[in-house]
Design brief:
A: about 160 residues; alpha+beta; DNA polymerase, domain 1; 2 domains; B: about 300 residues; Enolase-like, domain 1
Chain lengths: ~160, ~300
């Protein structure tokens, strides 16, 4: 089956079986391996991508179901080659990761959260990432990272004297 | 964790979907796929043909409809979570929706898909049963309707006719002034499958007595149930804690609870009594609308 996917601003027409999940289409057909295969049945959240800006599990969507939606993967959030998005930056700074397996999904979930809620409370952050399992960090630095990213991004468009 | 092969189609209309469904015994409808796809990944379901109805705009809406709120089958749970009409007219539904899965699954999962899946632990099934929702479907070019109680036939089984497409759910609106709702569930982690869930909606009169009450328990048995004997016993009373607990305990005495690795039958019965009593207490507090009554 010919399937058209719009990923990180690029259009792709690919031949694949309808049973190919969006996750496998991204990893195996487009070589975008930032979306990670964890449980492959919707429990761990490691495969999170953005579909029209909303965080979804790419293992629970067959590729043809994603036709017509704008898909964003971790490879698509950087402002330019070799650069990091503000959210990626804070994950480094606060050490919001250890093994890194859940990290792209955590960052994309944070992107979706902050796009709709620039001033999340700690509870908002915890609720947003509650569907993403991390077995290393104990989550504390991840929550810290997202809170710091929110603070930075709020400040980004304000004059210096008004920033915290 | 890869699904078995299947054919995929995306028909333009509900009748076309029904025709495809009727033409292939192994065909299944898919909307959000948040329950069906995990089953397929584990090969517990092996449809030969997936008929994708998610893009059918005529199945995605929330509107007032003759004393009820009608919701199109393909309306996503994340939409209902933020819908002002649902929050105002069907507060019990609004209260339960954030407990369905996680934000990422609610972003895709639909109300009709969850109901058709008929998981005993599904929050939407419990609310449909508790509020006497009506479930409408299309089959063979004609519309049909089932009450929620007639709709669920047992564990993951519904009474939808073969080849039918669920089209809408209608939740009756309670119009009294002092209406309150309560919902509780217990699970290993928040938003995991519930071991037991309970929902209650009450209408109080001017003296704070229960004019009308509905109590439902989910995940404890093959399908969610109403605690009718408790409802009858408690109607007209002040819903004091002891009486509520006694009434729900008696109503749950004869159920045959599910049992699995996570929760034994006796645990489920015990938890059901506690959660139903708590749901009623919350509904009462909510109806009184006063913080002074909060425990």
């Amino acid at each position: 089956m010919r399937i058209k996917l719009s990923v990180n601003g690029g259009e792709h027409a690919l031949d694949m079986e309808p049973r190919t999940t969006l996750l496998d289409a991204l990893r195996d057909h487009l070589k975008l391996t930032g979306a990670h295969a964890g449980c492959e049945h919707g429990v761990c959240g490691a495969c999170t991508v953005l579909l029209d800006g909303v965080a979804v599990r790419s293992c629970l969507i067959f590729a043809p179901q994603a036709e017509g939606s704008a898909i964003t993967t971790i490879e698509g959030v950087t402002p330019g080659p070799g650069e990091l998005s503000p959210i990626q930056d804070v994950f480094c700074e606060t050490h919001g990761m250890q093994c890194g397996y859940c990290t792209p999904a955590m960052i994309l979930t944070a992107h979706a959260l902050l796009a709709g809620n620039p001033e999340p409370t700690r509870d908002d952050i915890v609720e947003a990432i509650s569907g993403n399992i991390c077995r290393c960090t104990g989550y504390a630095q991840i929550v810290e990272a997202i809170a710091l990213a929110a603070e930075r991004m709020r400040g980004a468009n304000r004059p210096m004297e008004l920033r915290k | 964790m890869k699904a078995a092969p299947f054919a995929y189609s995306r028909p333009a209309s509900v009748d076309e979907a029904c025709a495809l469904l009727a033409g292939d015994e192994g065909a299944r409808l898919i909307a959000g796929g948040q329950s069906l796809v995990p089953m397929m990944a584990m090969r517990l379901a092996r449809p030969t043909h997936l008929i994708d109805i998610a893009r059918n705009a005529s199945l995605s809406y929330v509107r007032e409809d003759k004393g009820a709120v009608a919701i199109g089958a393909c309306t996503r749970q994340c939409v209902l979570e933020r819908d002002a009409l649902v929050a105002k007219r069907v507060p019990l539904l609004a209260r339960a929706i954030p407990c369905i899965g996680h934000a990422a699954t609610r972003a895709r999962g639909t109300i009709g898909g969850s109901l058709a899946h008929a998981d005993p632990a599904a929050e939407l099934a419990l609310i449909a049963i508790t509020l006497d929702a009506a479930i409408t479907y299309r089959a063979g070019g004609a519309d049909g309707e089932l009450t929620a109680r007639d709709f669920f036939a047992g564990l993951m089984v519904t009474n939808l006719p073969v080849g039918a497409c669920l089209t809408a759910v209608r939740f009756p609106v309670w119009h009294g002034e002092r209406i309150g709702v309560g919902f509780h569930e217990v699970n290993a982690r928040r938003s995991d499958f519930a071991f037991v869930s309970a929902a209650a909606q009450v209408e109080l009169d001017g003296d704070g007595k229960a004019k009308r009450i509905a109590i439902g328990v989910g995940a404890a048995t093959d399908s969610p149930i109403r605690l009718e004997s408790a409802e009858q016993q408690l109607t007209g009373g002040a819903l004091d804690e002891k009486k509520v607990t006694e009434a729900v305990r008696a109503a749950l005495a004869d159920i045959e609870p599910l049992a699995d690795l996570h929760a034994s039958a006796e645990y489920r019965r015990r938890a059901a009594v506690s959660l139903a009593a708590r749901a009623v207490a919350d509904a009462k507090t909510n109806a009184l609308g006063s913080k002074a009554h909060a425990h």
